[in-house]
Design a protein that fits this description.
A hairpin with a 4-residue loop joins strand 4 and strand 5. The protein is globular and about 75 Å long. By secondary structure, it is mainly α. Helix 2 (about 75-80) runs antiparallel to helix 9. The chain starts with a strand and ends in a 16-residue tail after the last helix. The protein folds into three domains: about 5-50, Single Sheet (Rubrerythrin, domain 2), CATH 2.20.28; about 85-270 and about 395-410, Citrate Synthase, domain 1, CATH 1.10.580; about 275-380, Cytochrome p450-Terp, domain 2, CATH 1.10.230. Helix content is about 50%, strand content about 5%. It has helices at about 35-40, 75-80, 85-90, 100-110, 115-120, 130-145, 155-180, 195-205, 225-235, 245-250, 260-270, 275-290, 295-300, 325-340, 345-360, 360-365, 370-380, 390-410, and strands at about 5, 15-20, 30, 60, 65-70, 70-75, 205, 215.
Amino acid sequence: MGTITLINNETGKSYEFDLIDCTRGPKAINFSKLFETTGIFSYDPGYGSTAGCESTISYIDGKKGELLYKGIPIEDLVMHYSFSDICKFLISGDLPKNEQESLEFDLELRHRGFLHEKLKRMFDVFPDRAHPMATLSALVSVLSTLYVDYKDEGDTDDYQTMARRIIGKIPTMVAYCYRNSVGAPFIQPDISKSYIENFLYMLRGYPHSRLKHTIYGEQEISELEIKALNKILILHADHGQNASTTTVRNVASTGVHPYAAISSGISALWGPVHGGANEKVLRQLNEIGDVKNVDKFIARAKDKNDSFRLMGFGHRVYKNYDPRAKVLKTLKDELDQQGIKMDSYLSDIAQKVEEVALSDDYFKERGLYPNVDFYSGIILTALKIPTELFTPIFVMGRMPGWCAQLIEHNKNPHARITRPRQVYLGK
């Protein structure tokens, strides 16, 4: 640990601040006492140069295009583990040691998938065409009224129960949000099916009028679809202090119920420049309409006088190819080869957009590479996921990360209520 000296040219005074050695990445200046020491404070719109917490959960190297969960590259985790394994890893710090441990945790999540009867009746108050994200945020907030004990979590068991309960219930809630929005009857969870298969089953299943059990519609759920959705969710499980995660931590800093903090994160994720971006990508590909129109839209994206913005390219942190986008591009090709066909109309346009953009100096000089949203919508469409569920699927994926961040925040004895300052320019 070293120090850095700040000199005020107006007064001639100098001040020393400690440098923090991070285990990865650049050093950080400890400015926590900046105002108390100097009488001035820093101005950093969007907090692009400011760390608001210490964390051991995920790490991003934007220049190299790396993402790690607890020190392990995302590519390795996607290759060898299921999404429920990653949920366990993020909230407890341990990967399953064997198949039995993996199965036991997945079974626990399945058993926790049933919803409180009072929560199910809440769906009646939402309009049929309510966007699932609006419904989901409200329902997660309602969870805080049903599981009030979590307001005063005290030990590791409390944290784990809180996290496992909402991770278990969120697939059911997402499926019910969609079915409610289209007026379809709810399908109860089936604990004989894995965490991911169960979600697809609740999303697609139809009650049979003459049988006591439910059956699938015309298309059954394939192992290939289950593996693909596992990978997509793993890629979304955590991503440092992004807007929604920071929202969860900021709201949690007030001492509010953890499910209320998570509800606020869902609302933040809904934004079109955050979790809602994959919906925007799909709409934009439809707007481009044909491969022959790609050059025209690329030219518009480069025109500073045109408000058109190329969705799915560029990232606040990555100045290289988003590692999650690389995995998704490979997954798209694998699914296409193995029988789950992409929409050729959209896939061809996307491939052409990427090809033209990556060969253009304008994009290369600005570090504008495809991000996780660019291919995720195309793959989710191939998996028969409705467009309005793209962002709720993101919520499912990010839930273990939010829970891990909440646990980390609540266990920190030095955590303080978030209270940024402002540069006042008024009268």
